[in-house]
Structure formats: structure tokens, C-alpha cells
Amino acid sequence: MKSIAALQNRVTPWSDGLEPSDAELDAIEWELPLILADVDLLDAEIAVMDRMPSELDERRVRRARRRVLAARRALTNQAIATLPGGAA
What we know:
mainly alpha
């Protein structure tokens, strides 16, 4: 009896190109403040998901939302500043 596994090709062939490129790593690093702010917001929202939020919980969620908005604003301003020809 022959082994079937030995006769089949792998479903996902291994490739040397599975690592992120330098450009992708730079983009992740550039967006890291927003990613961390989003994680904090998710943590705050998950904490109050199964119970009635207290005043402190509501403050925590509001602060986390403000951090997300501030991070988005900062990234947008950085992106606009790097546009060629200057944007108004």
C-alpha cells in the first residue's frame, strides 16, 4: 500500500517571499501610533461589553476614541506634508 501524502503536492508552497518588504515594514512603523490607539480603544470597549459601564469606563472609552482621532489626524497631516508640490 502506497502513502497518499507522499504523492500529493503541498497546498501552500513555501516561498522565500513570505517576509514583508522593507516598504511594508516602514508603512507599519509609520502607522504604529494609530494601530496602538485602536488596540487601546478595543480594550476599553471589550472591558465594558458584558456589563453596564461605570463613569470611569465611559471616560476610558472617550479618551481612547480621542487618542484614535488624534493619531488619525497626525497621520493625515504627515501624509499631506509629504505630498509633492504642497497641498493646501
